[in-house]
Amino acid sequence: MNAAAETTYRRGLNPLHGVLLAGTFVLFLAALLSDYAYLTSYQIQWSNLSSWLIAGALVCNGFAFLCGVLGLFRAGNRRRGLVYIALLVVSFVLGFINALIHAMDAWAVMPTGFILSIIVTVLALVATWIGFSNTGAKVKQ
Questions:
Q1: How many degrees, rounded to 5, is the angle at CA 15 between CA 7 and CA 32?
Q2: Enclosing H/E stretch for 110
Q3: Number of domains the chain contains
Q4: pLDDT tens-digit profile, the chain (141 residues)
Q5: By the 8 A CB rule, do 62 and 99 touch?
Q6: Is residue 110 part of a domain?
Q7: The predicted structure's pLDDT at residue 138
Q8: What are the CB-based long-range contacts (under 8 Å, 24+) for 96-104?
Q9: Is residue 88 a part of any domain in this protein?
Q10: What are 140's strand-pairing partners?
Q11: Looking at residue 80, what is its pLDDT?
């Protein structure tokens, strides 16, 4: 009787891609918390901080998108990769709209900026979850 040893290994993200993806979520989350601080205190500096955090998140999101497109060519599960790319694109577009909202007068930011920050943060969380989940599994015999 022969015993076949099956080894399953999963491919992870490139470390740079992982840092950019995590940075996207963390910066959008920080912008959301900053918007919440502005909503509760009406200190204009919180709105300014949100603008800068959103700008940083958009930079990380753009580079994570490029890494995701390059990783799509080697992905084992292309459907999950396409969903991941689509989430990054939607979060970038809504994040850009949110940046435009935050560029207005500080009093005009609320409540639209806060609502967009919630939506973009949730999208970034889902994209990060999918990005860090194991996308490809290989069975070696």
A1: 120
A2: none
A3: 1
A4: 666 656 555 567 889 999 999 999 999 999 999 999 999 999 999 999 999 999 999 999 999 999 999 888 876 678 888 999 999 999 999 999 999 999 998 889 999 999 999 999 999 999 999 999 865 555 555
A5: no
A6: yes
A7: 53
A8: 96/58, 98/31, 98/54, 99/51, 99/54, 99/55, 99/58, 102/47, 102/50, 102/51, 102/54, 103/51
A9: yes
A10: 7
A11: 86
- Residue 90 is predicted with a pLDDT of 98
92 Cα distance to chain centroid: 8
Residues ≥6 apart with Cβ < 8 Å to 110: 35, 38, 39
Structure tokens at 66: 């490029």
State residue 72's pLDDT score.
Answer: 83
Sign of the torsion formed by the C-alpha atoms of 77, 81, 84 and 86: negative
Domain range for 119 is 21-131
- For residue 16, tell me if it sits in a domain: no
Structural domain contains residue 90: yes
For 33, 51, 61, 101, 104, the CA distances from 39, given in Å and listed in that order, are: 10, 14, 25, 15, 15
Q: Distance between CA atoms of 52 and 62, rounded to whole angstroms?
A: 15
Q: Which structure tokens are listed for 128?
A: 């990060």
